[in-house]
Structures are given as C-alpha cells and as structure tokens.
Amino acid sequence: MVELKYMLEIFLRGLLMGTSDIMPGISGGTIALITGIYDKLISSISNIKLLFLKPLLKGDIDGFKNQLLEEVDFEFFIPLILGIGIAMIIMAGIINFLLTDYAGFTYSFFAGLILASIYILYKQLDAFNIKVILITVIFAILGYVFVGLNPVQTAHSLPVLFVSGFIAICAMLLPGISGSSLLLLLGQYEYMINALHTLAIADIIVFIVGALLGFMGMSRVIKYLLENHKLSTVAALIGIMLGSMRVPLQEIVGVPMTSIPICIIIGIIGMAIVLVVELNSNYELI
C-alpha cells in the first residue's frame, strides 16, 4: 500500500513535469525541484551505468536481472515516465489546436514564458561585466541567425529529430531552461507537437532515443560547465534564449493591430505563471 501511494505521488509529479515540458519557458527540472524529486531524479539517472549489458552479452540472464534492478529504480522511473508521457500526449492535442487556430496568441504566451525564464537565468549570474555582455550578445546573434535558417526550420528527417531530442532533453538538467524552448530554436517544436498529437510512432521513438542518450551522456558535460564555467555558460544560455525569441515574434507581428493589446496581455500572463512557479523554488545552478 505504501509503495502504491509512493508510485501515485511520483506519477502526479510526472504529470506536472510533462505539462511544463511541452510549454516553452517552463522547465521540467524546475517542477522536479518544486515537487522535491530533483535530487532523486539526478541521482537515479547517475546510477544507470549500463553495467547490466555486460552479463546480458555473456548470456547470464540472472546476472543481467540483478544488475538491472540494482542500477534502475523502476518504482521511480515507471510512474514518472508514464505521468510525463500521458501529460505530453494530452497537452499536445490542446497546443496543436491553439497553434493551428490561434498561432499569434499562442506564441505571445510562449514569448512571455521565455522572457520570464531569461530573467530567472539572469538572476543566476554571479557577476555582470563586459565578458557576460559580449557572450550574451554573440550567442543571441547566433541563435537569431540559426532559427532563421530555412533548412533547419523545414528539415524533419529522423536524424534531425534524433539530434533535437538529444539537445532538448539536456534542458531538464537545468532548472529555468525549457526543452521546448530549445525545440523552438531548432525549428522542431510544432512538428513534434503534431507528431505527439497524431501518434507518429517512428518520429516519437527516434526523438525519445535521442533524448535518452542526451540525458545520460550530456548530464556530465552540463555539470562540468556549470561547475567550472558557470558565468560563461549561463550568459550563453541567456543569449540563445534571446535569439530564439525570433520565432514567436515572427508569429506575433503577423496578427492584426487590433489584436496586439491582447497579445501583450497574454504574454504578461505567461511571464506571471513562470515567475509564480519560480517563487516556490529556491535553487542555484550548481
């Protein structure tokens, strides 16, 4: 009974994380922090060293099972992944509808989410100097140019989806950085929302495989950068998110002038949601 209650609690946290992960600006890592499972999440992932493959290759099934159970916390991961997956599938249908019929208003909301997240990242800076400004400006320009490249925006091949999953999932390890914001930057956000909504199995599987490899492999890289080059890393992330604002702004400028005040109000609501969420968490990036 205790285990069932525990798994239900993790499942509900997964629902919250999945809902936040599909919206640009709100990080699943932030939700994990707020709900008290961030440390558990990181430690559980770090414990997976794939040593269970060694006995499997030798045909030692019992050794494989024992090592697998030792490395992978199934009672934690199964309900968490189920919660995240169900939330993302449900929300994908809603967001797909909004992007189709109310693109300008929807991207106004996304813009608010991203701007608030940039402010939260700014607070993580230990200092503000010329170096920080230069790095931010350089990466903002690179991000702005990158999202304007038509081949990146229109290519949705399986290798591109694999790389997108690999990159986007790294955001979960950085509270305040949204994986969906990175998908916007890569020009894959709307495509993956539609893939989830229509259950395009091949696209989803390739994206998930890339995400799993990214989550396990890049966690050490991100940890190293934040521990040894925090100022430059955070400044670069701020710049990238500023550059990615080109995507929502292109949609917003296309709405009628009479709708601009509504877009502004929606954007402010998006900012308020992120800021309220962050007020309930007290953390630092390393």
Q: What would you report as the Rg, rounded to the nearest angstrom?
A: 19 Å
Largest sheet: none
Number of helices in the DSSP assignment: 16
> What characteristic shape results from the CA principal axes?
globular
Q: Which stretches are poorly predicted, pLDDT < 50 over at least 5 residues?
A: none
Helix proportion: over 70%
What's the overall average pLDDT, rounded?
81
The structural class is mainly alpha
Distance between the termini: 36 Å
* SSE arrangement, N to C: HHHHHHHHHHHHHHHH
Percent of residues in β-strands: under 5%
* Domain count: 1
Give structural attributes:
single chain; 286 residues; mainly alpha
Layout of SSEs?
Layout: H1 2-21, H2 28-34, H3 38-46, H4 53-57, H5 61-71, H6 74-101, H7 103-122, H8 130-147, H9 150-154, H10 158-169, H11 179-186, H12 189-198, H13 201-228, H14 230-244, H15 246-252, H16 260-279
Structure description:
The chain is mainly alpha-helical. It has one domain (2-279). Helix content is 78%, strand content 0%. It contains 16 helices and no strands. It has helices at 2-21, 28-34, 38-46, 53-57, 61-71, 74-101, 103-122, 130-147, 150-154, 158-169, 179-186, 189-198, 201-228, 230-244, 246-252, 260-279. α8 packs parallel to α14 (230-244). The protein is globular, with a radius of gyration of 19 Å. The chain starts with a helix and ends in a 7-residue tail after the last helix. The relative contact order is 0.17. The mean pLDDT is 81.
